[in-house]
Amino acid sequence: MRIRKNVWPRRHVDWLCFLLIGISMPFVFIFEMIVVLPFIHPPGSFLHTFTFAMAVFLIFNITGNFAACIMVDTSVDGLLKVPEKPFSAGWHKCVKCLKIVPPRSWHCKICNCCILKRDHHCPFTGCCVGYRNHRYFIMFILFLFIGSTYAFIYNSVFLWTLKSVYSIVLLIYHLPVILKGGVSYERRKGAYPYGNDRWQANLQEVFGKRMHLAWLSPLLRSELIDSTDIWKID
């Protein structure tokens, strides 16, 4: 395995993509292990231990294959043997670097060299994907997909639980006030002087005359009832 002499990205867009992956992965992993995982599985439980081990396995393969894809030199440099009649065997001469290269080897203007069995230039790795690092690139995106799916499921449960708890707390706080015909500001005093005796009438003041349909869509018109003792709306 030959290592590239210059492993750093060459374009600004490559640097941005490279940093996006390089910086986000450790932060996401730490957040998942410290915040999300203990929230869903109690520390010390079998599922906590199993999921933690799976996460370490995934992050190891994601970062390992990512690094290998970047570091391995997949250019035609160091190619040992050129056939006696290379052009009859499908070889061609690169007009950029003037080297005789095998079939499916093309020059990359970003890497500034011919890539053996060139697939494409990846902005996230900042290098070309070719013969010697194609394996690491495919394994990188495969394990990244598995890890992202794993994280998506756990984060969905985590956020759904947090949002559910938060929304329940808000409903418990606001709904009794609405049913009594008051507003949160009046709650401090513990009195609702403008409320109606019937809770249905208090709901109509908030949701309008068509309150039975208002929950279907914010686009449905539901005319509000005037507070006849205080104001009139034209």
Automatic annotation (TrEMBL):
Subcellular location per the Swiss-Prot or TrEMBL entry: Membrane
Transmembrane segments: 12-40, 46-72, 136-154, 160-179
EC number: 2.3.1.225
Domain named Palmitoyltransferase DHHC: residues: 92-163
GO cellular component terms listed in the entry, alphabetical order: membrane
Recorded topology in the membrane: Multi-pass membrane protein
Domain of life: Eukaryota
Enzyme class: transferase
Residues in the signal sequence: none
Catalytic activity: L-cysteinyl-[protein] + hexadecanoyl-CoA = S-hexadecanoyl-L-cysteinyl-[protein] + CoA
Domain notes: The DHHC domain is required for palmitoyltransferase activity.
UniProt name for this protein: Palmitoyltransferase
Organism: Glossina fuscipes
